[in-house]
Protein 1
Amino acid sequence: MSTVDMTHGGGGRAMADLIRDVFHKHLGNPILDRGDDGGRVTVPGQRLVMSTDGHVIAPLFFPGGDIGSLSVHGTINDLAMMGAKPLYLTAAFILEEGFPLADLERVVWSMANAARDADVQVISGDTKVVERGKGDGVFITTTGIGVVADGVDLSAHNVRPGHSVLVSGTMGDHGVAVLSKRENLSFETEIVSDSAPLHGLVSDMLAAVPDITTLRDPTRGGLAATLNEIATTAGVGITLDEAQIPVAPDVAAACELLGLDPLNTANEGKLIAICPREDAQTLLDTMLEHPLGRNAAIIGETIADPAHLVQMKTAFGGTRIVDWLAGEQLPRIC
Amino acid sequence: MRYISEFRDRALAEKLAKGIAQEADAARDYHFMEFCGGHTHAIFRYGVQDLMPGNVHFVHGPGCPVCVLPVRRLDDAVELAEKHDVILCTYGDMMRVPGTGQRSLIRAKADGADIRMVYSTLDALKVARENPDRQVVFFAIGFETTTPPTAVAIRMAKAEGLTNFTVFCNHVLTPAAIAHILDSPDFAPGGPARIDGFLGPSHVSAVIGSQPYEAAAQKYQKPVVIAGFEPLDVMQSVLMLIRQANAGRAEVENQYTRVVTREGNRKAQALVAEVLELRDSFEWRGLGAVPHSALQISDDFAAFDAEKRFTVSQKQSREVKSCECPAVLRGVKKPTDCKLFGTVCTPDNPMGACMVSSEGACAAYWSYGRQRQPETAA
């Protein structure tokens, strides 16, 4: 028995064995180990944040992470962007018949490490198996619950003209790492995904600047898509200074080669912060002190603009729009 | 990034901008056609227009490979994938271009056709090797830049004796298109549009050299400056064009000397000549039938010609009515002159190819420059 087969989802002994030998072995904790239909927890009288995120990625393993760590970080970061301290996760696995059990164990082990590092527990789970060809190895959906302190109100709706826009680090690392692995493109230096849990950084930021108006993690669609979402929701325009936007040299070079734009490329361990202009320097200094914010920068500001455009002063000295991407980024021909 | 950042240097850009402003004659306008979509893209992405004086205008040319492919050929590719059960390999740019009835390769793929995006012709060969029981067709498009890799694939397929690999050849030629544009009544003296010179193709010229443009420069008395794709390349080339225009010269000059020579890449040219031959005529979107403007697979390699192996049906291919792609591709209209631009037609819902490709003028206007609409439309 070295691959997943239909009996693993059948509700019989094989499924019970899989749950015990793989999931409980790595993710076990007193709540999960009770084996009840759900995990019962007590959360002191505080405001709760819940978020859920489905994870599908090819390849499952990439430099800097895998679908296991990603499924933990992705949901934790959604909670963190609400200013919450993440406490518990649940996880649902869709496994494809024929998926190697060794790979599954590697994924679950990585999930467990990511959860431990982030100080959250996986308290309930589910496993289903689909026939060969109807999945892509493994899909993982995680749901997270966290608590948020009174007074913290992070939302794009709070953004006004005259606020500063900051990012916590270099743009595009995750997308390029995954793409180069998927397409078997090798570069002189390996580009590593930035996948990381951001709630620690957020906690420091909120302590220093309680007036942060919004936090967002620029995942799919990258910085460009997320800023356009914020501009549309908040009803403001955004102007960026390209020279201030951090992009790692190897990522810039890979994007150049592939005809991609780092601003449209996914991140999994970076955030965008918007705060009143007078707080921007304090916020930046706080971010720079945290290991996950050491390349942070102030990259622009919000303005009054009825068209809600994101515009950028190019490093070259001109201006341009930074638009949503239409569909996926496709490599250019010429 | 060494060898790239140097060509995006702001201080140098400002210096060149000053030079252009000084040398451009305020009493006249300059209309320069950038032939390639790569130039259009650079102009918008870096905001080069902002560094030009008001009397220097860019006229966007037809050099966007997916844009000039007529709908009929795209419809044929969709049919190959859907009706002939082939694996169709294509460059990514082509995937979202709408064919007749807005049917694109990406939609055909969603409906079950086996269409695969490849980065190089060698990937397509690999697909053929790995699927010996399937017919694999490479959808070859592009100007002279992408032609040698197609020739290489065909030659390798023959050497390996691959019997399940063919190429649907749609390669087109730049100099023929330039001559055709200058012959059109649009650009005749007194016609509706004007061209005072050309920013010549970059990577195309790396293959064919700068020499093939000399005849047109002389015949039509238009200066051509072969220009690199970086924003400083574009600015320096504009300055060179202004100097030629001011002096009444019409020569082929080469700004992109770090890549382009007068002769070009002889080895690549020989390879192409071995495998491909001139078509008598080829239909271009926007330009219509252009004589001697495209390549087909020569008889020696006929076994690898998808047009010979498969018979596609006669069909009524149609572009979207009132889509101004054709006039935009000829440089006669700007994207903002099109009624569909930004209303019905956006990159998310493209009506014509010019809104799809990052090299298309409409996509560049929309994605990078629509804040400028009032002044560009004027």
Note: Chain A touches chain B through 28 residues (CB under 8 Å).
Protein 2
Amino acid sequence: MRLAFRTYRKQTGILVNNPLATVGSIILGALAELGRLASFAGNSISHIVRPPIYWRLIAQQMWLIGYNSLPVVGLTALFTGAALAQQIYVGGSRFNAESVVPGVVVIAIVRELGPVLGGLMVAGRVSSAMAAELGTMRVTEQIDALVTLSTDPFKYLIAPRLLAAVITLPILVLIANIIGVLGGYLIGTERLDLNAATYITVTVDFLEQADVVSSLVKAAVFGFFIALMGSYHGYNSRGGAQGVGKATTNAVVSAFIAILLANLIITVIVFGGAA
Amino acid sequence: MSSMIKLENVKKSFGNKHILQGVNLEVQKGQSLVIIGGSGTGKSVTLKCVLGLLQPDSGAIYVDGKEVTSASNSERKKALHKFGMLFQGAALFDSIKVWENVAFGLIQGKGLNKKDAKEIAIEKLRRVGLSPDVGELSPAELSGGMQKRVGLARAIATEPEIIFFDEPTTGLDPIMADVINDLIVECVKDLGATTMTITHDMASARKIADRIAMLYKGEIIWEGNKDQIDNSGNAYVQQFITGSAHGPIEMELLKP
């Protein structure tokens, strides 16, 4: 379609500097890219469910995505939870509402900050690494070599990454949520003189099952996009070292956008009803 | 003799770059065809079309009598079992050991267990002159010539009926290049395989080929037996094999 458009432009010659034509060609290009991404995702998912399934590769990816991300995700959650508690305490003390600290911290962490910040941190680490690895495999013809050895690259390379990320992210986010609340607890009890027992009771009281479920669903969706963007850009990278660099950047940026957009959509669906 | 690979009027373009403009080729069973030609004339694209890594825009490709461009995914996969390929940069998987590279097609493609596959892999490594302890190294620890040998061992490990060589001697010193050429000739003879090689190294072409075809601007402009190449009567071929900067090809290069 883009090609047809370009030929059309060349033939007529008049449209070359037409801003409408430029906008149109950008939109058509974006739609074509979205279509390719969707078909890539569909193809990958179909390989997740069809045997053979490479359990060893899935476990290896889970280790790479999960275990190695623990420090950065844990630290992010700890500091964010602590800073949040401090801010809410200061804000709340203006109208003697310091007691809302545990409730607001747990809701904010579990519903939003745990999955979103955790997802973004993992995207920065994992999408880029996947894009760089697959991109290098592409430009050194390792992906072509897989095909000549009767192995489907979607099955061998991409399906394990997607599945591993979808399984691992909820686990990571669950840990991030606990550490985030712990960060708030530490600041609250050590610095702000909140009562420790009350802090825990209020936290537990405020937390609802829907919060935890939505948090984990978000995490799984984010995991899907992290692996999808890393794989898609890496798999389709072209043109040597520069191409791999571009793929890595695009993977991280698109994963960030996908995570933030998906977060908004899930939040509106789950919590969007009038209170 | 029956034809193992046959291309009929294969065309392939990328955007407005017309790489293959109607390639006709036939390789008989057990024969070794070498395609020569300069960079960017469509040699790699030709191989990738036969392998199914690229889909030609038009034309037909027959592998062992079966048309493959219109084949379903599962039929294509079946056809791929017949192939082995040595890539230009060896394309070894750098996340796994050398012997696992060689055994890859046996384990993933043929479903052999690890122990038997390793035995075969070590035998194939020995076949290309590498000792078993090389098998325990990672590909990044090997020199370019050794990587090529491992790539060759991987290509022949599944004993394919058809083997493709993509510039097997590029980037090697002349002596190592000759070692690889000898290995290719021996291995192909052992297996009785049909081969297609692309190269611009004439020494390699003369050593490996039964027949030589020259690809120029997306078309086969000359084809003949190895011993006819010096009397091809074709100015383009003559210029290419003598490696002269002056001739009909230069004229084309000067034009934008």
Note: Chain B touches chain A through 26 residues (CB under 8 Å).
